[in-house]
């Protein structure tokens, strides 16, 4: 598999981690999930992300998930693997293992101990050195990490850390950050890098309009992200917004803390993508009223999609 580069674009869907009802890894559902994402038209997959419940997996389970995904894809799509860790040694160890299995690159979020601009730069400089030739994604997700990285610092990182090839943009609000980074690359102040956006695709049309290259996030209907990105690539932002608007109520519901991932897994199980909607403990569980909310949203979404021919 070719390695991740600054030219990456499209939809790298954040994959869930399927579990059985008793919380064990469900390897069969990993296979069906991979088939589903590939059939939905995604460009690549990202595994062991925050919403992939990576912190709940053992080191051995993490490698098992990656190996299973890579084996099922057999090189047809690139795979990015989250390797964030408190220290550089376990990060490097996991990165070397997954790259040896055929991953295209890895993703690294900053630890909460990063507080200043100089610390942010020094951390990613150290990551670049530790990972050697492995290309990596800078995950900028202040809402979770509590680490804010200013555009000027990101410019410096990308100019001086050559194996950092992509920004996973999840700042919120963050449209001005995309604008600033694209202005910097257009002026020659920094090299142009890939920007893929997160936050469940909640701002994807606007992010594409600001110069993003696509999405790296999860949603129970990856077809939405694929459709939006394709419409922008075809020069049709109005169609992109029309597609996005049809899915927005459900995407909004998924953004709730706690039950958001539970609702995503509920819909994926309902669609036959995975066998069980179980989150590994500790994890939220939908109430009967929550399920009724989701079912109502699904019914209304189906009506709207038929109306717009999507």
UniProtKB/TrEMBL annotation:
Entry's Gene Ontology cellular component terms: cytosol
CDD domains from the UniProt entry: DHDPS-like
Coiled-coil stretches: none
GO MF terms, alphabetically ordered: 4-hydroxy-tetrahydrodipicolinate synthase activity; 5-dehydro-4-deoxyglucarate dehydratase activity; N-acetylneuraminate lyase activity
This protein's UniProt keywords: Lyase
Any Pfam family: DHDPS
Binding site residues for pyruvate: 216
UniProt KW ATP-binding keyword: no
Listed EC numbers: 4.1.3.3, 4.2.1.41, 4.3.3.7
Family, similarity comment: Belongs to the DapA family.
Protein name in UniProt: Dihydrodipicolinate synthase family protein
């Amino acid at each position: 598999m070719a390695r991740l580069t600054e030219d990456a674009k499209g939809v790298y869907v954040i994959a869930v981690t399927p579990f059985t009802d008793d919380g064990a890894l469900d390897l069969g559902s990993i296979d069906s999930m991979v088939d589903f994402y590939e059939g939905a038209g995604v460009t690549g997959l990202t595994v062991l992300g925050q919403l992939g419940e990576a912190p709940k997996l053992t080191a051995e389970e993490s490698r098992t998930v990656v190996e299973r995904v890579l084996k099922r894809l057999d090189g047809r799509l690139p795979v990015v693997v989250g390797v964030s860790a408190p220290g550089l040694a376990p990060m490097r160890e996991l990165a070397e293992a997954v790259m040896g299995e055929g991953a295209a690159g890895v993703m690294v979020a900053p630890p909460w101990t990063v507080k200043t601009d100089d610390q942010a730069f020094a951390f990613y400089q150290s990551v670049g050195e530790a990972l050697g030739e492995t290309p990596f994604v800078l995950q900028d997700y202040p809402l979770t990490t509590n680490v804010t990285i200013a555009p000027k610092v990101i410019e410096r990182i990308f100019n001086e850390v050559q194996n950092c090839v992509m920004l996973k943009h999840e700042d919120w609000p963050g449209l001005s950050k995309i604008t600033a980074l694209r202005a910097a690359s257009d002026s020659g102040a920094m090299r142009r890098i890939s920007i893929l956006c997160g936050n469940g695709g909640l701002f994807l049309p606007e992010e594409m309009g600001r110069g993003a290259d696509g999405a790296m996030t999860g949603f129970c209907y990856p077809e939405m992200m694929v459709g939006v990105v394709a419409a922008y690539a075809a020069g049709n932002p109005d169609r992109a917004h029309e597609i996005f608007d049809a899915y927005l109520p459900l995407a909004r519901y998924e953004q709730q803390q706690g039950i958001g991932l539970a609702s995503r897994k509920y819909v994926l199980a309902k669609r036959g993508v995975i066998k069980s909607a179980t989150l590994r403990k500790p994890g939220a569980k939908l109430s009967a009223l929550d399920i009724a909310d989701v079912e109502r949203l699904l019914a209304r979404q189906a009506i709207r999609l038929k109306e717009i021919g999507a």
